[in-house]
Every structure is written in structure tokens, then in C-alpha cells.
Design a protein that fits this description.
The protein is mostly helical. Helices cover 66% and strands 0% of the residues. The protein starts with 15 loop residues before the first helix and ends in a 7-residue tail after the last helix. The mean pLDDT is 77. Keywords: Coiled coil.
Length: 154
């Protein structure tokens, strides 16, 4: 059963000019750094187009991803023949932004893992120092050696 026309979203056709406008906005706003910027990009694209252009943040993000995928597969050889180089340049810059953000996210995750590991180690040492120990006949010396990480000499 088809939905009435009021509830269906209209299909958006991006022209080459619309793609350039989209890529310029993506480059200006850098939504890879902050995901909420995709809505700002969509709003700017809607404002900068002469025709009725009903795009959402999702459509803008998916179109950008599609263009990047096509660029990576080198489908734009036909565009080189038509001398559309600005689009390629913008796609390269956007691709580098996305790669930089991925790299930063990985570095943050590694640093977080490293911090969590050191925190666990500190907690473990603190708990070892707090465990109750019966001290008798010369065990006091070995107990303090363990707590303060001193070499035990017999």
C-alpha cells in the first residue's frame, strides 16, 4: 500500500552545481568533528539553492558519503575529461578531514585504554596494601617490603 503523496518525501536530485555547493559547505563546517554540524550544512545548502531543495541532514551526509565513495573508486575519470577539477579538489580535502577525525578518535581511544589500565593498576596496588595481614615472627619486615616495593633481603 503506497503512502499518500503528503507523507512521502520527494526524491532530491543533486546537480553538479548542487554537489559543489554541498561540498563547499561540508568543507566550511567540518561535520566530521562535530556530528550536529550536518544539520547546519543541510540548512546552508537549502538556503544557497534557487530551486525548492528539501534536504535533511541525513540526505546531505549520505550524498557526501556517496561522493567520497565514488571518488575513492576513481569513477571521476569522466569528470576529468569534462574539466571539473574543483569538485575533485573539494572531495580530496573532505576525505582528508574525515581521515584526520578517524585518526584523532583512535588516538583518544588508545589514550583512554591506557589511562584505564593505569587506574586499574593503581587500584590493585592500593587494595593490596589495605588487605588485612596477620603479622607474626619476622613477617612484619616482608609485609613492609611488599607494600613499599622494597627489595626483600633475607
Amino acid at each position: 500500500m503506497a503512502l499518500p503523496k503528503l507523507f512521502r518525501k520527494t526524491q532530491v536530485r543533486f546537480s553538479a552545481k548542487d554537489d559543489l555547493n554541498l561540498l563547499k559547505e561540508v568543507l566550511a563546517e567540518n561535520p566530521y568533528k562535530e556530528k550536529t554540524k550536518w544539520e547546519v550544512v543541510a540548512q546552508n545548502v537549502r538556503e544557497n539553492v534557487d530551486k525548492v531543495f528539501n534536504v535533511t541532514s541525513r540526505r546531505v551526509r549520505e550524498r557526501t558519503q556517496l561522493l567520497l565513495q565514488q571518488f575513492q573508486k576513481e569513477i571521476y575519470e569522466a569528470l576529468k575529461r569534462r574539466k571539473i577539477h574543483r569538485k575533485q579538489q573539494l572531495l580530496q580535502e573532505i576525505q582528508s578531514l574525515a581521515e584526520e577525525e578517524d585518526k584523532e578518535q583512535k588516538e583518544k581511544a588508545q589514550q583512554k585504554d591506557k589511562d584505564e589500565h593505569s587506574a586499574k593498576l593503581i587500584r590493585k596496588r592500593a587494595m593490596e596494601a589495605l588487605t588485612p595481614v596477620k603479622i607474626s615472627n619476622g613477617r612484619l619486615y616482608s609485609f613492609f617490603c611488599n607494600v613499599f616495593r622494597i627489595k626483600h633481603v633475607k
